[in-house]
Amino acid sequence: SQQGEEDPQALSIQEGENATMNCSYKTSINNLQWYRQNSGRGLVHLILIRSNEREKHSGRLRVTLDTSKKSSSLLITASRAADTASYFCAILRRSNTGKLIFGQGTTLQVKP
Amino acid sequence: NAGVTQTPKFQVLKTGQSMTLQCAQDMNHNSMYWYRQDPGMGLRLIYYSASEGTTDKGEVPNGYNVSRLNKREFSLRLESAAPSQTSVYFCASSESPGRGSTDTQYFGPGTRLTVL
Q1: Using CA atoms, how far apart are residues B41 and B35, in angstroms rounded to an integer?
Q2: Per-position pLDDT tens, chain B of length 116
Q3: Which of A4, A39, A81, B39 could be A103's S-S partner, Cβ–Cβ 3.0 to 4.6 Å?
């Protein structure tokens, strides 16, 4: 499968701690995106990192990309209860018409 | 802007019944997508439309048909529903496919479909 694979499947932390989620993939990519899904809702785009970038920041989010290892990580710093959600990575393959391939997601629970 | 809207929010069908899920976007996006999400799984692409007038199969197209009615609207039809089609269905849109675009997708709230 060329699908993104995420690790861990579930993560439970205390408010204020950092949360790290990892994504691995198998194909050459154009970019990699992270999405959040709150329970019962649609996905919301968080951050995008292009294949020629190694790190990006957005507020409390930090994304890294290692194309040699075909992996990415999403770090959420100083987590809050409101960060409780499922997080999905999605890859856009290099030769592609815009279709994203989603991983199975990491479920994050932040305890107050 | 409403973004991406989907109707209905919930639906229960009996095996063999047909129905159409509606999706509309007001962001003037070229591309639209239909996904299904099953428990413990990511999203799987059913069909997509790279631009008005075109549609293509995704990963799991069997049992579904689509219509890109105009630039705003993209509908998904189940001709003869089966229990295996019980799922949450999401519609999404993006500005444009391919080079030069980020292909960030914007999602609707989903339709929860149960087939008995």
Answers
A1: 12
A2: 789 999 999 999 999 999 999 999 999 999 999 999 998 778 999 999 988 889 999 999 999 999 998 999 999 999 999 999 999 999 999 987 655 556 789 999 999 999 99
A3: A4
Our CA-based measurement puts residue B15 at a distance from the nearest CA of chain A, in whole angstroms, of: 25
Q: Strand, coil or helix: what is B71? A: coil
Of A4, A97, A104, the CB nearest to B40: A104
Q: Are residues B48 and A102, on separate chains, in Cβ contact within 8 Å?
A: no
Q: CA of A59, closest CA in chain B: separation in Å? A: 18
- Residue of A97, A106, A107 best to disrupt the B interface, most CBs of B under 10 A: A97
pLDDT tens digits, one per residue of A71-98: 999 999 999 999 999 999 999 887 666 6
Buried b (16+ CB within 10 A) or exposed e, A23-32: bbbeeebbbb
